[in-house]
TrEMBL record:
InterPro entries: IspD, IspD/TarI, IspD/TarI_cytidylyltransf_bact, ISPD_synthase_CS, Nucleotide-diphossugar_trans. The record marks R156, K212 as: Positions MEP for the nucleophilic attack. The keyword Transferase applies. Catalyzes the formation of 4-diphosphocytidyl-2-C-methyl-D-erythritol from CTP and 2-C-methyl-D-erythritol 4-phosphate (MEP). The keyword Isomerase does not apply. One of its GO terms (molecular function) is 2-C-methyl-D-erythritol 4-phosphate cytidylyltransferase activity. This is 2-C-methyl-D-erythritol 4-phosphate cytidylyltransferase. It is an enzyme of class 2 (transferase). The record marks R16, K23 as: Transition state stabilizer. Belongs to the IspD/TarI cytidylyltransferase family. IspD subfamily. Its EC number is 2.7.7.60.
Amino acid sequence: MSSVWAVVPAAGSGRRMAAEVPKQYLKLNGVPILEHTLRALLACPDIRGVMVVLDPSDRRADAIPSLSDPRVSTAAGGAERADSVLAGLQAVSLEASEQDWVLVHDAARPCVSVALLHSLITACVSENVGAVMAQASVDTLKRISDDNRVVETLDRKAIWRAQTPQMFKLGELSAALSEALANDIAITDESMAMERAGYPVSILEGPSTNIKVTLPADLEFAEIILRRLNEESKV
């Protein structure tokens, strides 16, 4: 029976946050973002192990309690997110089978719930197709030219905003990422690599609360969501 593993790319600098430390170490309700994310993944009984990909020079991770959990391992990250994800996959493959599933989740999405993780895992395993958590667009979308002029209005019914987690077979995702990077293709998420390699990718609608902390304003919103999730878990 296939196992499910998680890979968490956490080697980025978070330039858009304009903070003194990488955003995964900023605190929400007194706890680092990365710690919140790892706690959620470790709380999911479907996940066999978690691989966290870090900057090799990163010493801040030493203070993250969940990194000492026996189910958590670490690997050295690369220059870009795709490089780090591939490094994480290669590290997982030392213990996992190519037919195992791997769930990739952003370190800066701390509001993921166990229910969301379980729904994605169940959908992928039952249908044997990789999938992406995403949200349907509620805004009118415009495609613009280089000189900032509107070229066309897109049909928002066909537009979805990708989130993480994204889940695929370990061997297939490793091959897809390796091929894209070898051809200098800028890969922004795992689904893009899989689409480009010709694999089917499903969409699973995720909640608006599964936010990525990217800008300073996101911190306050994430704190509110986490407090609500904690309250619900106590009921």
